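Rotation project, supervised by the postdoc (A.L.). Task for the rotation student: set up a whole-complex structure prediction and record inputs and outputs verbatim in this book. Inputs entered:
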Amino acid sequence: MSRVYNFSAGPAMLPLEVLEEAREDLLDYKGSGMSVMEMSHRGKVFDGIIRKAEADFRKLVGVPDDYAVLFLQGGGWTQFAEVPMNLTKNGTAAYIVTGNWARNAAKEAQKYTKVVRVASSEDQNFSYIPDCSDLDIPEDADYVYICENNTIYGTEYFQLPNTKGHVLVADVSSNFLSRPIDVKKYGLFFGGVQKNVGPAGVTIVCVRKDLINPDLPDYVPTMMRYQTQIDKDSLFNTPPAWGIYVCGLTFQWLLKQGGLAEIAKKNEAKAKLFYDTLDESKLFKGTVRRQDRSLMNAPFVTGDKDLDAEFIKEAAAQGLESLKGHRSVGGMRASLYNAMPYEGVVKLTNFMKEFEAHHSAV
Amino acid sequence: MSRVYNFSAGPAMLPLEVLEEAREDLLDYKGSGMSVMEMSHRGKVFDGIIRKAEADFRKLVGVPDDYAVLFLQGGGWTQFAEVPMNLTKNGTAAYIVTGNWARNAAKEAQKYTKVVRVASSEDQNFSYIPDCSDLDIPEDADYVYICENNTIYGTEYFQLPNTKGHVLVADVSSNFLSRPIDVKKYGLFFGGVQKNVGPAGVTIVCVRKDLINPDLPDYVPTMMRYQTQIDKDSLFNTPPAWGIYVCGLTFQWLLKQGGLAEIAKKNEAKAKLFYDTLDESKLFKGTVRRQDRSLMNAPFVTGDKDLDAEFIKEAAAQGLESLKGHRSVGGMRASLYNAMPYEGVVKLTNFMKEFEAHHSAV
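Outputs recorded:
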C-alpha cells in the first residue's frame, strides 16, 4: 500500500488514524457484531455514536446551548435553499459575493427572498475579499450571507463583515474546523464535511434556534425545515450514519491533539511554508491578493499552460495528487486541509523548487 | 470478531463479502493511494466507480434507456416531496395507503398537488394489501402511488395495482433488488438503499425521463429537480461517494450469484422456512393476511407482551439481534433482506422452536 499526498479541493484527505480506526471496526464495531453501516439508527449503539459526535463537535467549536447542531444530507446546494426558506421573516437578505458558491447561493435564495448583493469581488475574478467594514446593508435584512473560504479562488475572510447588527450566515465548507471561531458571531453556519471533516454526504448545520421562522410557507418540504430535524435530534429519518461516525472520529482526532487552536497552528505552518516558497519563486505566482490568501486552498500558476500541465503531471508521478486548478482560475491549486501532513507540503514545495531549477536551466 | 445475525428493519445487514472488500480497499482503493472517502468526485477513479455502479444497476434490474438512474441524498422523505414536485402536471395524484410511509408520502404530496386516497388498509391496522384491481382513479391523475413493501406492517404487493393506464410510482425502499421487476410497469421507483443495498445516505431514483414536468414552479429547489441531476449524471454536486461505492459492490455481489432471479429464490426459501415455522407454532402468530405476507419483513407476536420481551432478550443473547417489532404492531419483527444468510433464519427458527418448547413445558 502506498498512500499519496492528495491536494484535491474536496473530497480530500482524511487523517490516517481516522481511516485506520474505521477500517479496524468495519466488520464489527466495538464488539456489537455489526458494521456501523448495518446498525439501526434507532438502536443504542448508533445513538451513542451520534450523541458523542454532537457533544464532541460542541466542545471542539464551543457551541452555546441556544444553537442546534444538525447532521443533514444534501450538501451546500441544499443549504442554499434551506437557509432562505427557514430564516426569511422580513423578506430581504444581503449577500456578499466572493466566488461561485456565494453567487450560486444568492441566485438560489432569490426563489425565496429578495436578495441584495451588498459587495462583490467579481470585478477581479474573485481574487480578493472586498472591504466589508461599512457595507450598505438593508435595514430589514434577515441576514448577511458569506462564503467564508472560497475553495475555487483561494480567498478567505480573516475578519468577518461588519453586519451592523444583522445576523451573519456563513458557508464554512472549505475552512470547517480549521481554526477556532466565535460561534456567537454567527446566526448560522454550515459546512459540507467532505473537505475537512469526513466523507461526502453529511452537512453540518449550526443554527441559533430562535432565528428560525416558525411559520414557514406550505411549499417548504418537511425535510428542509430545520425544526423537523431539531425536534428529532437529526434522527427524523435515517441519517447518513457511516458519514456521521467518521466525522465523529475526526472530532476525536482534533480533540486529542488539542482542539482547533492547535490545528490552526499546524495549518498556519503549512500555509507559511507553501506561500513563502511561492513568494521566493520566480516561476510560480499566486493568484490572490496577499492578505486574503486562504490557508486552505492555494491557487498558483506559471503563466504558461503547457508548463502548468507538465508540473501537474510530474507531481502526480511523485505521489503529489490532484494539483490541477479549477477551470475558473487555471493552473494549479494545492488544498492544505487539516489532514494534509506538514511532510506533504515539504514534499510539494521541494518539488516546486526542483521543477523551477530544472526549467530555468533548460 | 463475532458477527451477529441482525434482523433490523434497516439499516440492516450487508453482505459479508461486500464489507470485506470495502475494508480491504479502505486505505488505498485499487492502488490509487486514496480511500474512496478521500477522492475527488470529478476524478477518473471515482467516475469509474459511479459509472460502473449505474451500468451494473441497469443490467441487474433491466432498466431501459428512456429511464434515468439517479444516486441522490435525503431518503424517502425527500422523495415524498420530490415526486409530486417533479411529476405534477394536471395537479391530481392517486395514493394507495398501506402503511405509515404511504400515508406520510400522501400527506407530504398535498403541499404540491391534490391527493386522492383511492384505497387504504388502515381499517385493519394495515395488515393486508387492499384489492387494487378496479380502483376509482381520477381520470386526470398524474400518477398512482404505492409503497410496495411495508416495512412496519410486513405486507408486500405481489401484484401491482391496475392503474388503468396511469403512471405507477413506487417506493421500493424495503424490497429493493429482492426480486426481478418489470421496469416498464413503473413511471418512477425509488429506494433508500439502507435496507437491502448499501449504507444509509443514498437514495436511488429510477424515472422515465419524459414524465418530468419541464416547467416547475419557482419554489422547487435546484437540488430537488430531477432534471438537475439527470443533466449531470448524479454529479451536480458532491455525491455521497462512499455509499455509492458500497452499493456498487452489492450490485456486483448480486450479479455474481446470478442476479435478481437467483436472489429471489433465496429470499423465497428464507421466507418459506420462517413462515412455515410460524404456521406450525402454537405460541407465535403472524399479524398479516397470509397472501400479503412480505418476503422481507415478518412481524409476529405471542400475544403476551412480557413473553415477547423475554423472547427478544434471549434471542439477542444468542446473537439474533434487533428482533423487536415496531411500536405500531408490537411484538417481534424479523427482517430477512438479501444479505441475511439462510443460516441466520435456520438459527432463528430453531430458537423459536426451543423457546416454544421451553415455555410450553413451564
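Student's summary: Chain A has a mean pLDDT of 97.
Supervisor addendum: Residues 260-280 of chain A form the longest helix (21 residues).
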